[in-house]
Amino acid sequence: MKFFTCPHCAAQVFFDNLDCTCGGQLAYQPAKSEMVPAEATCANRKSIDCNWVCEAGQELCQSCTMTKTHPDTSVDGNLALWRRAEKAKRWVLANLRHLGWFRETDTGARPVFELLSEKTLQGPEQPVMGHADGTIVINVAEADPATLVERREQMREPYRTMIGHYRHEIAHFLFMRLSKSEKFLQDFRTNFGDETTDYAAALQVYYETGAPADWQEHFVSEYASAHPHEDWAETAAHVLHLNDLCDSARASRLVVGETGFEMLSQDNLISDGLTLGIALNHLNRSMGLEDAYPFVISPNVREKLTFAAVHLKRGD
Ligand SMILES: [Zn+2]
Ligand SMILES: [Zn+2]
Ligand SMILES: [Zn+2]
Questions:
Q1: How many A from CA of 131 to the centre of ligand 3?
Q2: Domain count along the chain
Q3: What is the rounded distance in angstroms from the CA atom of residue 71 to the CA atom of residue 69?
Q4: Is the pTM above the cut of 0.85?
């Protein structure tokens, strides 16, 4: 993510800012990816701090429009969960626009989001995150930082974040769009295997026996070993992590290697991203924090990352 400039005083401001230290009100304009004075703002600005401008002739912004269902805000705690869940979603959508997805010139389908809470008026529920036919279900429980840490420990996943959940589920959605091309499907199967094998059966086996002992040689995460669809989602999400990491480093004027950071479609993305991951871990350790990038990438995984990187950059 880049840094932004206040349209009132030219100070540096950030993606989520609603206002600047100069007192000026800010709104994010996704089409231009810049901060503008807060005039035509999203109707969710007051309730959930959405700082995007509204779409022409609409009340909501491009991101909020994609949310079909949000948590029932009459239940205690749900408003804060919804607010944090939408914040992560806006970040991920802005990254994807940068790569060419869901822009005005993109005539393909958009995902529909159902942001569901475990807290409902009818009592506790367990919404399961997933993607089906263009609809993405996000359980907002982990938008609460304490719950997130608890579940990260429970699931024994070294990396688990709301941004990660969105990237994973959107990767499933993007597969649906990309797989309309026969050429993509053929190349996909060479890299990831046959995605038409029984999904439910594969997941059941995974939950019973876990990942194979040598999973790190072939997969970016344990879960990626469950089925080619999950391998794609985990790998593509990882490319989105690396892309954003490189993008933010470039904005911060950090330099890695000889070329700096190239955008997707270049193998540099992977090597620069990985170098940056190691640097980031080292910086975190100096602050007594856990590794921000707890991954080891094998040559096999690297090939899959490169394949995903090529296809995630969408030309207009
Ligand atoms: Zn300002
Ligand atoms: Zn909005
Ligand atoms: Zn998945």
A1: 7
A2: 3
A3: 7
A4: yes
